Amino acid sequence: MFNKTNTFQNLNNCADDCDVNIQIGEGSNSKIFKAHSNILRIRSTYFNTALSSYWAKKEGNIFIFKKPNINPDIFRIILNFIYTGTISLLDINRDKDNKLNELLIAADEIGLNDELIDYIQIHINELSKENIILLFNTLNMIPCNQRNYNNIINFIIEYTLEFFNDYDDSNLFLKLSDNSLISLIKNDDFQMKEIDIWNNLIKWAIAKNPTISSHTSNWKSKEIEIIKNTIQKFIPYIRFFQISPDDYYEKVHPLSALLPNKLKKEINLHIIDPRIPISTKILRPRIFIKKQRWNYY
Is 131 exposed, middle or buried (0-12, 13-18, 19+ CB in 10 A)? Predict the structure, then answer.
């Protein structure tokens, strides 16, 4: 991997001796980037082929290359990475349009994806706790059939699991997207107690519906129905049968109107006598193994 140096940064900013013009994007959303063919060839197998005499078009001594399917903002990040070997994960995460998905797709096409993923893995500790959650949310937005880079998906999932294991912070829990929350609570390695997952899920649902009071005792049928609809897709992943009877009757039972009737009845039966047959699948307990692998800020 290239190290960031002033020499390569200056090369990236200097157009005097560039011999490649790359037109990125289409129509009004297009931009011409100037670069050095030797650096592009060295850093990318894609450009090594694209700038060959069999493919590239030249006007005089200048290679003319068009890439309409990449956003100019994304290619600017890619080009900087080609020259310096660095990117700003923080800037990408701050982007209102969540450019990480586009960046990984573009890097994959240009043959830099493995290197970019390695960079993200090495430098993820530079992000704040909030930005780690944003990164996790961004990756969980990508449909499974479009995940051509499962290694980074799996890395971020594992990282975030361990991150939450070290930081039992309900404020961070509230920042999780729907998909991110499901990916955490369905995971056997998510080391949060089941009753804490339930409590945080209720807080998360209230945050999703800010007009609803945080005082659950004040809820009427309308509020109950809204929260029930908000959390229903998460219910199958909560291991209610692993919650102690005391915690269940203190924390869950007062809000049992949020649960499906069948589940509610079978939880009560199981508490009365675990030997009574029930049809609801009892999920196995989570695996509580403390791992110390990451250094967090």
Answer: middle
| Residue that is written with structure tokens 């039972």 in the block | 253
- In terms of residue numbers, what domain contains 103? 6-126
- Looking at the DSSP assignment, which residues form a beta bridge with residue 25? 30
Kindly give, in sequence order, each residue whose CB lies less than 8 Å from that of residue 121, ignoring residues fewer than 6 positions away. 152, 155
Residue 93 sits in a domain whose CATH number is: 3.30.710.10
pLDDT in tens, 233-265: 999 999 999 999 999 999 999 999 999 999 999
Reported as a single tens digit per residue, the pLDDT across 135-150 is 788 777 766 655 555 6
**Closest by alpha carbon to 165, among 68, 35, 290?**
290
Main-chain phi, psi angles of 93, to 5 degrees: -70, -30
**Assigned token pair, 129:** 């706790």
Specify the 3-state DSSP secondary structure of 136: helix
Which residues contact residue 285 at a Cβ distance below 8 angstroms, ignoring those fewer than 6 apart? 239, 242
The answer to whether residues 203 and 170 touch, using CB atoms and an 8 Å cutoff, is yes
d(CA 57, CA 101): 30
Task: For residue 112, tell me if it sits in a domain.
Answer: yes
Helix axes 100-110, 113-123, angle to 10 degrees: 140
CB–CB of 152/138 below 8 Å?
A: no
**Beta carbons of 102 and 22 less than 8 angstroms apart:** no
Q: Is residue 28 part of a domain?
A: yes
Q: What are the structure tokens assigned to 153, written together?
A: 């998906």
- Count of the separate structural domains present in the chain: 1
**Which 3 state secondary structure label does DSSP give 292?**
coil
Edge to edge, the sheet with strand 29-35 lists 29-35, 20-26, 62-67, 57-59
Closest CA to 181 of 198, 257, 125: 198
Global confidence as pTM = 0.73
